[in-house]
Amino acid sequence: MRNRLLILWASLLLSEFVFGQDDYRPDRQHRFSLEAGGDFCLQSNSLTNEFMNKYLYGKFIDGELMQKQLNRLPSGMRTGIDLSFQLMAEYCTDTLRKNAIKFWATEHSLVGLRLESDLARLILHGNKQFEGDSAQFSHGGLVAMHYQTFEVGWGMQKSLKRYVVNASIRGGLACGTSRLESVFERGYLYTAPYGEYLDIDVGFHGFINDTAGSDMFKPSGYGFSTGLQAEVVENGKQRFFFGISDIGMLWWDKDAVELSLDTSFVFNGFQIDDVLNIDSTLFGDFNVDSMSQKYIHSAGTVERKTWLPVFFQLEYERKFSREISVFSALSYRMGVYSLPSLLVKAAYSFGNITPSLVLRAGGYGKLSAGIEVQLATSDFHHRLILGSAFLDGQLLPKHTGGQGFYIRYAFHPKSWK
Amino acid sequence: MRTFLIIGIVSLFALTACRKELDNPNWDTNILGPLIDANLGFDDIIADTLFVADADHKLSLVYNGSVYKMEIDSLASLPDTSLQYKLSLPLFINIPPGQLVYLRNEIVDFNVGDAELRYLRIKSGKIRFQIKGYLPGDVQCKYSIPSASINGAVFQVTENLSEAPAGGYSEIEADYDMSGYTFDLTGGGVTTNQLNTRIEIRTSTTEDTVQFNYGDSLRMIISYIDIVPEYARGYFGYQQFFSVPEKTGLSLFEKVVGGEASFEHLSLFITMRNGFGVDANCLITSMTGYNSRDNTTTPLSSELIGKMININSASETGNPENPVEPSEYVLVIEESAALPFISAFPDSIEYGFQMQVNPMGNISGGNDFVYYGYGMEIMLNAEIPLSLQADGFTLRDTVEFDFTNTPETAKIREGDFYLIADNGFPIDAEVQLFLINAEGEQIATLFLTNKIEHADLDQNGKAIGQKRSILHIPADRLQIADIRDARTAVVQASFSTPDAGFVTIYDSYSIRLKLTGDFTYGISNEE
After folding, report:
1. pLDDT over 70 (residue A302)
2. CA distance B124 to chain A (A)
């Protein structure tokens, strides 16, 4: 129990996972396509990279850094982590490449956190700062999950005058490795002068599955996932894309536990009637286990189903010339305390090398900037994309709160053309 | 193309490698909150002491302490007793198997002085059987006590003694537990202190005829050892007991270390409780209180000291669970004698004592009785109404103070602790906690401010409401280290009453103590 609470509290400081932009797909110039990629993103609208790095790498966070961090806290703190891997294969079943079967395998590790400023301050710096005052922390929460999907799908292509429409649907197995969820429905803490008493009002709901022995090869939850996408391409000029993925559910095994706390009470300290038995009473009960046993109620082990975090994606790309193009994507993942994210990329092609400037806003963070480089063989059978939307975070770690990079590789065998 | 593949695969692996287990971050946070909360009445503050309230809710301290105790073995017991028997054959003789060769009915006469014991049930004790034989064949030795039985079964034991080796001897030594046996010491008639026993020696039934020679012999010793009675009946005789002046601890004031206090009234009693089934005369020759802190002695100057007291015999209830109803005689000490004796706060008393048992002779007709656990006891009883005056009256106690088994405390870096006291008593208090390390050295004093003010009084001198005092315990890093090093603590509290004469303590008075902490606490997400 203690471990879980610590994970919970610790994770409150972690951040959301922003899903990588699915900003390229195999075109239909090849009969077979194989793509692999990975994204890592750690983003916060308030925590700086300096702070997050110390947190994540287990360093001591000194008072100065903590105070600096506290001064930056907005009214609603959002932080998220996204670590995703994807493998996709497509095979056109006809020589005209109008129909294709597809296979997707993905793995997602997501952490999303939203905290009211007071709760963040409370967790980071304790309740002393609220002496004689109250801390309000309603409507916050944390979700951390790790899951995989294995999907097959069918794609088709239609030509309408100068437009080509690509559409596909997919569905398959979802496997859950872990899920931790906590939601503060309401929260209030008043700290009396000298700490004479604490007036607490908390509505909290939590869920955690049994992660013992669970990994991606031995999940503790199974379910399904589906998705669909549509693309309209005006040849050589512009492209519009819409997609929804991770529509699905997971059913967790019987060792999943629901925790709830719905209580209002005044904590006056642990009651004792023997002032001389100091050592066994004074701090004996002051540990996470005894506090959680006293105030947190477990609904016991449950079999529970949870939704996958549905991912929406809207893209528009326009080529202004053979060299210059602009790509924009609006995406949103539900249920991970993230805001919609907008990404804009401006690219200039030098033949096989295409560098881009990347701007990104929303998600868990503020505006960030980065670069992307796309490398391709002369015959375009192999493409490699390396990029990061958070170069500013690397250059100014004391002031910005985002870091991450992505890599993708696409392969189109010549012999299958 | 190959270059692209290698870059791609290496990059993917690099990305995957980022998913290592993350270490645990740590930082300091500032916690402020209550730790313990106690609402204490007077009886909670002065622990291990009985307080009672009268109809007016005034509290009195009640003390009942044993000064002297005489147990069963002082009055009726069997001394260790050994009996020797010898069998010598005067001629050559062939004895067939199973033939009786020695028989003796013996009366064991216990030497118990003037007492005439008739019955005795044994709580613990044993009979030891020692046999040494110089015989050419195996023999069977049987010892029985027809007048000793347990649940209707007579005590009897049989031991087989093998033939002696050439030029040597054979022997047996065995102990038999006699717990629970009842001895009928009347010898089967009207005698006392006597036990019928029987010894039989036969040749072994499994051997052939044995040829005994002149001079073959067997020696037997039967010993009654450590016999402790659970119950005895008879006439215990006229006995006198004199105690030399003897000192015994008095727990009532053992925690007092200084200051002055006086009580408005008190009652002091000396209770003599006779749990023996005999009449007795008792005389307390002296009683003196000793205060070892200031090395003073205070005699109890009562006219009852030195006066012979007749105490009747206890009576039997017939209830095996509680078989005796003791008789009591209470000496009510005059308050003029009791006040100076108690107000000297003695931590030990010295007394002299004399007792005569059966001063009138055998008036019970041999029906004196005694049960284990019931004896003669002298107790000191005090009832002290808590109407008192105090000036720095100081109590001190040593308590365990060991936080080594509470790892949460190791995360406290530094800070301040506060004792918020809402005092409803009409008494000021100054408290202090001295920390002692494993070597017995005082390493820290906790309270920086330590005075708890008394509650306000009304015109009748009764406390109204509660008055708040906040006591400060600074705990810098050195002090925190001292707290961790401490193993015991000396708690000291000095009490003073306001200048309003005697103040009375009511059972409704209480003090609420709340310890709060304002400290820096190390947060780490490790287990």
Report:
1. no
2. 40
